[in-house]
Amino acid sequence: MQEDQEYCILDYQCYKPTDDRMLDSELCLAVIKRTKNLGLLEYKFILKKVVNSGIGEQTYAPRTIIAGREQNPTILDAISEMEEFFHDSIAKLLARTAISPLEIEVLVVNVSMLSLVPSLAARIINHYKMRDDIKVYNLSGMGCSASLISVDIVRNIFKSNKNLYALVVTTESMAPNWYSGNDKSMILPNCLFRSGGCAVLLTNKRALKHRAMFRFKCLVRTHHGARDESYSCCMQQQDEQGRLGVYLTKNLPKAATRAFVDNLREISPRILPISELLRFMVVSLVRKMSKTQTSSEAGGGTKPVINFKTGVDHFCLHHGGKSVIDGVKLSLGLSEYDIEPSRMTLHRFGNTSASSLCCVWEVVRDLDLSDANAWKDCIEGYPPAVSMANPFMEKFGWINQEFDPDTFKIPE
Fold it and tell me: Per CATH, which fold does 4-223+352-401 belong to?
């Protein structure tokens, strides 16, 4: 454990695409109207999901969507989307930390929905002219857990190698994976996922502990791939017309909750004080005994909840969607203040997949707001003073007043 605590995050750079890639409600409607095989039921479904998504007017999309080419992306579109992020965020991170690309000894790149030859990691190495003995890992297909896996790879390397710099680069490929069909379970990712990314510089150099932004505390990950419900809840596939997309099943929330509970069971003893663990054990035991004695009564009283605030000061939950955040808030007994960072990030940037998920860290120093970070020009506006309600309902709520699929038409 002492070895693990020696590694830290020196700095990180979240990717903020340029303003010409913003996807507001008007542009969203233009994209939807270009999908000619949508009918009234699909329009009502999209309206409901977008309104309830928790996403605002300033999220970002790939240039293929902005240019109206989302139905016919090329391999060059996918490469350009990745390089735009790589060339921006990695360069800013290295410049701010004054670290040369030749000093990076470990590189981990994760992009779930894109696998190229040469690999994305190789493209980064070539562009920044990194050393020839660099340890390289290129991950794909890992979804929102990819950042955890990437950090775990670095942690294991740090255990057996001292005085290293490691660069973790994580994003998602949107350009070739936008769904243009009418399967509702495959339309849903279009309503949630947006462009983003993050480059993180880690080190286990003791001499740099004073420069650390975060120090590692612990990481846990459970794998439910052996369970069919979990394995099939999120799959890249083709619909009946052969259109490629990501299929999200109704089992996804259940599978995510099960994994979340298992992770909490593992992480609680590592981060919570003994007093809270003992309190929870006693309350649980008393409740169990009470239920046994009054088995005829339904419910058996209020279910005991462990208080994570006794060991955690800040909660940066994965902003996978409004329902995800609300579910975690309820499960952990958190306040609106506790989940505000996640809710605001979802509103401003959308679900950016793996680049928004990490593990448990101890804050060593505060973020310098003068740095070129993704929130610099808008943090003062959050939380918004006005309602965070999505304008889709105000602009397009008339769709719910339509009832005949045969006569329904979207105005030009």
Answer: Peroxisomal Thiolase; Chain A, domain 1 (3.40.47)
CA distance 308 to 335: 12
Residue of 37, 163, 223, 378 with catalytic role = 223
Residue 99 has a pLDDT of 96
Instruction: Give the mean pLDDT of the chain.
Output: 87
Catalytic residue among 318, 319, 358, 359: 318
Q: What is the pTM for the complete model shown? A: 0.89
Nearest 10 degrees: Cα torsion 319, 73, 170, 90: -120
Strand duo 106-110 + 135-139: pairing: parallel
Query: Any alpha helices (H) in 219-304, and if so which ranges?
Result: 228-231, 252-271, 274-293
Asked if 210 is an active-site residue, the reply is no
Domain parsing of the chain, residue ranges: 4-223+352-401
Cα–Cα distance measured from residue 190 to residue 49, given in angstroms and rounded to the nearest whole number: 10
- pLDDT more than 90, % of the chain: 50
Please pick, among 110, 138, 182, 351, the residue that the annotation labels catalytic. Answer: 351
Rounded distance, CA 23 to CA 291, Å?
Answer: 53
Whether 191 is a known active-site residue: answer no
224 is catalytic: no
Q: Nearest Cα to 367, choosing from 14, 7, 4, 5?
A: 14
Catalytic choice (8, 14, 28, 144):
144
Catalytic-residue membership of 314: yes
113: three-class secondary structure by DSSP? coil
Out of 190, 233, 347, 358, the active site residue is 347
* Catalytic-residue membership of 234: no
Please report, as a single letter, which amino acid is at residue 128. Y
Nearest CA-CA partner of 102 in 124, 122, 123, 131: 131
The amino acid occupying position 350 is: G
- Residue 57's H or E segment, with its range, is none
